[in-house]
Specification:
By secondary structure, the protein is an all-alpha fold. The chain has one domain: 434 Repressor (Amino-terminal Domain) (Orthogonal Bundle). Helices cover 73% and strands 0% of the residues. The two termini are 21 Å apart.
């Protein structure tokens, strides 16, 4: 079971890197909408996420709108860690 989870995480991480590297506008917008959905469902504000991840509020707004430039896997991991969601839930 552990190896399956590792492989799944690795594949989802590769998918995330692929989306981030190619700057696919449609995929980035879908990704941002999912982040916003999970944040809202958990009752967090942009400010809550910013304070707990170290990512600026303005940049988080851009992520949710799908217009963030140079979005990194590191930032994505900080957000999903704070929201307590899995990478696989975003794709």
């Amino acid at each position: 079971m552990f190896s399956y989870l590792c492989i799944l995480y690795f594949v989802k991480t590769l998918e995330c890197k692929d989306i981030l590297m190619k700057n696919n506008e449609e995929k980035l917008k879908e990704f941002g909408a999912r982040i916003k959905k999970f944040r809202a469902e958990k009752g967090y504000t942009i400010k809550d996420v910013a304070l707990n991840t170290g990512i600026r509020e303005k940049y988080l707004i851009k992520i949710e709108k799908g217009i963030a430039k140079r979005l990194t896997l590191n930032k994505v991991e900080k957000i999903i860690h704070f929201l307590n969601i899995k990478m696989s839930q975003l794709f």
